[in-house]
Amino acid sequence: MSARLLLLLVGLSAAPAAHAQQQSPADTVAIDPRFNLLRGIDLTRHQKASADSINAAFAEHVKKVESTETSAGGTVSKLMERSTERRRALQALLRPEQQVIFDRNYAELQAWMKREAHH
Known about the structure:
Blueprint: H1 3-12, H2 45-68, H3 72-92, H4 96-117
Helix pairs in contact: 1-3, 2-3
């Protein structure tokens, strides 16, 4: 995985819940809004709070892995695993009609990552 894709993966940890009025505690990295998996989804207050909690826990895990992992391969592997867990946890918060948008956002991200991996 390229450094650029790894940076995107780490950046995704900071994507705040959609329609946040204030910055989320996990909003520590500015990323392209196209990569926010919750883009275009109107979240309830409860969903937003849960998403922010999931994102904050992921951001904390990223910091921990970055500070303790010595091999690039181990770092990528651990971040990919946790990223998948994060994505599944976020998706589980959503109603079926919201999941359709989430799935589309994820497919767009996957397509972009595939294109970038070939550059």
